[in-house]
Design a protein that fits this description.
- α6 crosses α9 and α9 runs antiparallel to α10.
- It contains 12 helices and 6 strands.
- With about 350 residues, it is α+β, with helices and mostly antiparallel strands.
- β4 and β5 form a beta hairpin.
- The protein folds into 2 domains: about 100 residues, no CATH class; about 240 residues, Bacterial polysaccharide co-polymerase-like (2-Layer Sandwich).
Length: about 350
């Protein structure tokens, strides 16, 4: 049969006449999306935030202004002039710390109140709450860490030293508990590191103070012995120079001892200092509304997508009908092949079921 090819206007008209197919496909997609919103597990998002302590070293105004001059900042940095800051107080440090494997592993292995039971005394770790089942405990922890990395998000503000942590979980109380416990682990980790550094510094300065004190006493004893054995040292130029040399040694040893003693006392205070390095601004609370799935958003998106798929389906049917009208033999061959395949599939399924039943 020799017919004209399908024009664009005819394609549009054929698609419009198949509006029932478009409506059927769109309705099916919307119903499927609606069913998924009831099947998919919900996700709740809890947010906590804190501000890091500032460890900037204030210098005189003239030096600070010099360091901020254009072209001199690099030179000032090389000479050690300008405001310096401990990197462990930077918000970027806390970003890396919250995303580090050490903190995430501790968080995964920590126990939380089990929201799956009504007993408040029941607890479980995140490996169990995430439903990860593996005979290898290390692999299970690794999988839980990866899942927690995907479900957490850290944002920082370098200007205000503000750090925000968002955690998604299936239960609202669990999301809040994970976020708050993560901040607690970061604070504890910082405290452990600071105490260990302060202890090492205190032990080092303790030895240096003892050595400086012994050196000062040796120089003082040498100066005293010189004065006892040389009563008339002022009348001798050589003895006067020797007395000045011994005096300088005593003064240098005294200055060094006082400096080390001050640093030693500061290290002792730092070792016992319990001031937190971070200040919690907002503690995470269990959210009232779920973050996902948004039923209204999913239904609107499904309606649009279903309509598009329905239009494509109707257009494809119109194109196939036009092609079949122009090529009846090929269309008949395709239909017979499709019917044969459907018949073979229907015959294969019962045989497969009978084989499975025999095995059991």
């Amino acid at each position: 049969m020799d017919t004209e090819p399908l024009t664009f206007a005819q394609l549009v008209a054929s698609t419009v006449t198949r509006w029932r197919s478009v409506l059927l496909v769109a309705t099916g997609v919307v119903l499927l999306a609606l069913a998924l919103t009831f099947v998919l597990p919900p996700s709740y998002r809890a947010t906590t935030s804190f501000v890091t302590a500032d460890a900037s070293i204030e210098l005189p105004a003239a030096l600070g202004q010099l360091a901020s001059e254009p072209g001199l900042s690099a030179l000032a940095g090389q000479l050690g002039v300008g405001t310096s800051r401990d990197p462990s107080y930077s918000p970027a440090f806390y970003y890396e710390l919250l995303r580090s494997r050490e903190v995430l592993t501790r968080l995964v292995q920590s126990r939380f109140a089990d929201p799956r039971t009504a007993d408040p005394s029941d607890s479980a770790n995140l490996v169990q709450l995430f439903g990860i089942k593996s005979r290898d405990s290390l692999l299970a922890v690794e999988l839980a860490v990866r899942r927690l990395q995907r479900r957490s998000r850290v944002t920082i503000d370098l200007k205000t030293s503000f750090v925000s942590l968002q955690v998604d979980a299936r239960w609202p109380t669990l999301a809040a508990d994970i976020a708050n416990h993560a901040v607690g682990l970061v604070s504890a980790f910082n405290k452990e590191q600071r105490v260990s550094r302060a202890q090492a510094k205190r032990e080092f300065l303790e030895g240096r103070v003892a050595a400086a004190q012994d050196e000062l006493r040796t120089n003082e004893n040498a100066l005293r012995s010189f004065h006892e054995t040389n009563r008339q040292w002022r009348e001798s130029p050589g003895l006067s120079i020797e007395e000045l040399r011994l005096g300088r040694q005593v003064q240098t040893a005294s200055t060094l001892y006082l400096l080390l003693r001050q640093q030693y006392e500061a290290a002792r205070l730092e070792e016992v200092n319990t001031t937190p390095l971070i200040t919690v601004v907002d503690r995470a609370v269990p959210p009232r509304r779920r973050e996902w799935p948004h039923r209204a958003f999913i239904l609107v998106t499904a309606a649009l997508l279903g309509t598009l798929l329905g239009v494509l389906w109707a257009a494809a049917r119109a194109l196939f009908a036009s092609w079949a009208e122009r090529n009846p033999q090929e269309a008949s061959l395709l239909r017979s092949a499709a019917v044969r395949m459907a018949t073979e599939v229907r015959g294969t399924l019962p045989a497969r079921r009978r084989a499975v039943s025999r095995e059991h």
